[in-house]
Specification:
Helix content is about 90%, strand content about 0%. The chain starts with a helix and ends with a helix. By secondary structure, the chain is an all-alpha fold. It is built from two helices and no strands. Keywords: Membrane, Transmembrane, Transmembrane helix.
């Protein structure tokens, strides 16, 4: 019983952690895209 509760707690904790991590990664990616687009606006058009 205790082991299952512990596993559930770890699962929830890791889920929240990965959610925050993915959100942070997404935000940095968006910021990086915006800054790179400012430096070279013709990059997307030439593709």
């Amino acid at each position: 019983m205790f082991v299952s509760v512990l596993c559930g707690f770890i699962e929830r904790l890791s889920g929240i952690f990965f959610e925050k991590l993915s959100f942070f990664f997404l935000m940095t990616l968006i910021i990086f895209e915006k800054t790179s687009n400012k430096n070279s606006p013709n990059k997307l058009k030439t593709k």
